[in-house]
Amino acid sequence: MYFSVKVDEEKCIGCKICIFTCPEPNAIMLTENKKVCIDTNRCKGCFLCVSVCPKKALERGSVE
C-alpha cells in the first residue's frame, strides 16, 4: 500500500500555497478551472501540501 493526496475540488480556491510548499517539482499543478491536481507519479507522499491548505481541500489518502 502507498499513500497519495486527494483533492476536494469544491473546497479548493486555487491559492497555490500547496504548489509553492511542495518540494517535488511539478507534482502539483493548477488546472484550467483553477483547481489543483496531484500528479501521483511525482508525489512522494510527504503531505506538506495537506498541512498548509487553508481550506482543507487536500487530504491524505491511501491506495492499495
Automatic annotation (TrEMBL):
<dbReference type="InterPro" id="IPR017896">
    <property type="entry name" value="4Fe4S_Fe-S-bd"/>
</dbReference>
<protein>
    <submittedName>
        <fullName>Ferredoxin-2</fullName>
    </submittedName>
</protein>
<keyword id="KW-0004">4Fe-4S</keyword>
<keyword id="KW-0677">Repeat</keyword>
<dbReference type="Pfam" id="PF14697">
    <property type="entry name" value="Fer4_21"/>
</dbReference>
<dbReference type="InterPro" id="IPR017900">
    <property type="entry name" value="4Fe4S_Fe_S_CS"/>
</dbReference>
<dbReference type="GO" id="GO:0046872">
    <property type="term" value="F:metal ion binding"/>
</dbReference>
<keyword id="KW-0408">Iron</keyword>
<keyword id="KW-0411">Iron-sulfur</keyword>
<feature type="domain" description="4Fe-4S ferredoxin-type">
    <location>
        <begin position="3"/>
        <end position="33"/>
    </location>
</feature>
<keyword id="KW-0479">Metal-binding</keyword>
<feature type="domain" description="4Fe-4S ferredoxin-type">
    <location>
        <begin position="34"/>
        <end position="63"/>
    </location>
</feature>
<dbReference type="GO" id="GO:0051539">
    <property type="term" value="F:4 iron, 4 sulfur cluster binding"/>
</dbReference>
